[in-house]
Amino acid sequence: MITSSYGEKCTAQQAGVDGNKKVKLSIINKVKSLRETKLFFKDASAAKPLIITDDEPNPTFNNYWGVQVGISNMDMFRTSFHFYVDPKKLNVYYLDTFTDSGLQLLTLPQWRQWRKKAAWKNLHYYKYSGDKLIFLDKK
User: Fold this and answer.
1) Which of 21, 60, 87, 131 has the lowest CB atom count within 10 Å?
2) d(Cα 20, Cα 104) in Å, to the nearest integer?
């Protein structure tokens, strides 16, 4: 995995020397540019937040690249946000891990809307109505 602190640009040295370094740099910088990431890095600055990304695309999510934003202390990384980024178009998705219907990739507009709901803090689930994804509180 590679990491990058918020206060500096991710460099080629941090990204490694393999053929994917430009993609990694683009992905990290795309996630850094999100307003949620900027706010997290500002609020958690004392904890020295990091962005960590996978070295290889994840085949489970159609080659989206796994990116975690969080803090590291006591030899443990604590993830605050799970993102997946399409390496070709650099579209960013949020990976919802707090659902009993399996991991769910959400568009940023979906995530930004649904995380404001009270049910977001509890175990929740999704269902499809036609081709539309619907957020449901499990009650």
Assistant:
1) 131
2) 26
- CB-count exposure of residue 60 (10 Å: 0-12, 13-18, 19+): exposed
Give CA–CA dist 7/113, Å, rounded: 28
pLDDT single digits (tens) 76-89: 888 999 999 998 89
User: 134 is written with which tokens?
Assistant: 């619907």
Residue 125 to residue 91: CA distance in whole angstroms: 23
58-72 pLDDT, tens digit each: 887 778 888 999 998
| Phi, psi torsion values for 14, nearest 5 degrees | -65, -35
